[in-house]
Design goal:
alpha+beta; 12 strands; five-stranded antiparallel beta sheet; about 280 residues; BirA Bifunctional Protein, domain 2; SH3 type barrels; seven-stranded mixed beta sheet; single chain
Length: about 280
Amino acid sequence: MQTGKRNFRDTIFLNKRPDLLNPKKISNKLFTRTFGKNIFYFNSIDSTQDAAKKLEQNGAPEGAVVIAEEQTKARGRGDRSWFSPKGGLWFSLLLRPSLEPKEIPLLSLVFSLAIAEAIEKECKVICKVKWPNDVLLENPRLKNSFKKVCGILIEMSAESDKVHWVIVGCGVNVNNLLPKELIPKVVTLKEVLGKKVNRNVLLQALLKAMESFYIKFVQEGFSVFYNSYNQKSILQDKNILIEDYKNKTEGKFLKLDSDGSLILLTARKELKKFFSGDVSLHS
């Protein structure tokens, strides 16, 4: 007798099936309103972000997703190159939100929380978020050892009071190999779980969670996520180093403010507020 419950091992793990993304399979079992209803698949592409921008210019609807097996010229924040070979989840999501331009940076916090919770639920692992756009994964064999498993890039076109479009780029290390120079700070789901992950099932879970969080954010704002984000933040009570426009500031992470900014308590007992920057844990 079937209970209707999904079997964890039969869905999230690949077993002997080929590790290929299948847009039809993703869409068929994707119970969302708009996210992933239009999927544009590429075996290899320069950048899913650039492809999504072209689709936007051609009138693609909100929720359209560009996915690729590999990217050859992918980029992260600050135009840094993003290593994205076959085996990972590299996708860009097109949004046309009824939000003010000042609210858009909060999407990186909202989506990183959504992705962290979805990976936890689907893969039975522990994730943390790191301001402003990273998801970290714990290696259960090394307690409290967290490495980056996902990064998010937010790009938009807007006027002073109106947002035309937003493209959310997501890179998740799933079954892909990592270059030696990234191994100290980056991890894959395969490495932690010990088996290949079904990327089609995982992408379904991510898009479902992202849409749910997005709708709630548009309707109710960031306040509904504020406590959850702080609880899942790797920075809680940590000494950190933040690099912002070539300036480096050390201090203790005090809190995430309601507007999504980071509040730092410096060694001189000064409070400093940051809306962007690169953060690293500092001993």
